[in-house]
Write a structure and sequence with these properties.
Four copies of one chain form a homotetramer. Chain A is 25% helix and 19% strand. Chain A is of the alpha+beta class and 161 residues long. The C terminus of chain A is likely disordered. Bound molecules: zinc ion (4 copies). The site of one zinc ion has 6 residues of chain C, from helix 3.
Chain lengths: 161, 161, 161, 161
């Protein structure tokens, strides 16, 4: 399968590694209820204005962790981001997600909302099918007119530091 | 404030009622944590092919119900839809949401996902600001490339009746 | 099947009605993923110090509403409480839940947390199996040492009105 | 502050390390909405019947990651467990949680439910206050009569492998 034409600033090597890590993350899923394993991977942006090429890139993976109480479970993308944020990352160059589907699976709305707190509207989201076929869009395309921190923080009486 | 030019099939009277119910639903919010009351209203589609004009329309409202454990809370749109679905409604002509914001607040990603299970991509979503100013888009515009029942049901080994 | 010996202040007629409404609420579930319908019913407490016997009791039902994105779904108990709260109820005399299980199904932890925001520790929770067999415990027994509003509100800098 | 008398099988050194990691995990929280940082730490059980003392213990930490859409956020305990499970851990010797509270903060119901999928009823849960004061109970005490995998898996027609 061919990589997308537009890698949104990633190098071919970064894309290849992101793809490999995302596909293999599926095997860490705990999904006895849906039997629908999903893998995810975030590429953390280098801190500040450091050149990406000069900086060792950090890849943080995740997979879905389901629960007998379905609403209590956590999707792959949110597992990856919760890991990344509590590891100190606050900016990201790309998100990728993979499922054993015929056409590339997209993040659910809850995950789009969760990553939107930290990720820019122009961050690419790479979506893989079971053969490794890929479609890429930006987060802004997946969650237009989004609800975010600006709506809540800095309001009168809503100061939060 | 002017209604949107495109009412997406609603009559002016239906739009006016939807707006009024959505704005007043805000007052039923329980939001001691965010102090951000949100109101929502669904207009249930008449069953089958009955003409909308001939059928008494059903409006189902909701508001946000927060919790000391923030992730346990429920947004206004999901309250309205959970009510509607357990009242037997399965098709909807419109969703509306209102918040005390300067510009119309949009549904969070989790709510877009929740309503997507039942609502068509061309269903209008009317969003109101604190003055009653309105913006309207379709659900498909708010949640493009969505993840839905088709991806899970009817899979090999995923039969669910 | 026999009612529990301790009805926790409900009259036999109230218990019978609560049971009937809870069992029949199961039929309103939307659960194509789990095929595990759950029904729930809240008995709203009469406002203020009005005697229960003198006041018409209000029963609010709910059922589970699942989603292709499993974590986005809502359980029966939370559907019922979100309805009740946005209808203006703030105090409850009983919660009941029913599932098609051999032994009475209990609320998941997320639902225990959600109802704890409004319900007293000594509120009874009636749990029914598929034959209508019943076990009753209090909310405090289901969620001991709970995390609640007291921990968050009224803190220094956490004023919320 | 004194450690609890009953360490539930942990060595004093393991408890000391668990405490230190849990308290310092708080500093990784992203909580601009609640301003209520929570830290959590899981002690993974050594695989199989290996003696704990002989095996290097694995500690996995987490913190709360909030979202402008409050219900979309993830608590500290769930962050830690989602990390641990997707790292391959399936059994745990202890969970610990810490908050800047006067009395030790307990896990919310949603987190009790999430960890119950993997953790035994007799697993200890250590809860710390802002001074490091500690209370310990078992998971079974925090979530009695719990709803778990047994209720869903292995049902007739509910086979999931
Ligand atoms: Zn998701
Ligand atoms: Zn929402
Ligand atoms: Zn539940
Ligand atoms: Zn929690």
């Amino acid at each position: 399968t061919e990589p997308p034409q537009n890698l949104h600033g990633l190098s071919p090597a970064q894309f290849a590694l992101l793809k490999q890590k995302t596909l293999s993350a599926k095997s860490h899923a705990y999904c006895p209820y849906s039997r629908f394993p999903v893998g995810a991977c975030l590429l953390a942006a280098p801190p500040q204005a450091t050149a990406a090429a000069a900086e060792p890139a950090t890849y943080i993976t995740g997979a879905n962790v389901e629960n007998a109480s379905y609403p209590t479970g956590i999707c792959a993308e949110r597992t990856a981001l919760a890991k990344a944020v509590t590891d100190g990352h606050r900016a990201f160059a790309a998100l990728a997600v993979a499922a054993d589907t015929e056409t590339p699976a997209s993040p659910c709305g809850m995950c789009r909302q969760f990553v939107r707190e930290f990720c820019a509207a122009d961050m690419p989201v790479f979506m893989f099918d079971r053969e490794g076929g890929c479609v890429v869009v930006t987060l802004g395309e997946l969650l237009p007119m989004s609800f975010g921190p600006e709506q809540l923080l800095g309001r009168e009486g809503g100061e939060r530091a």
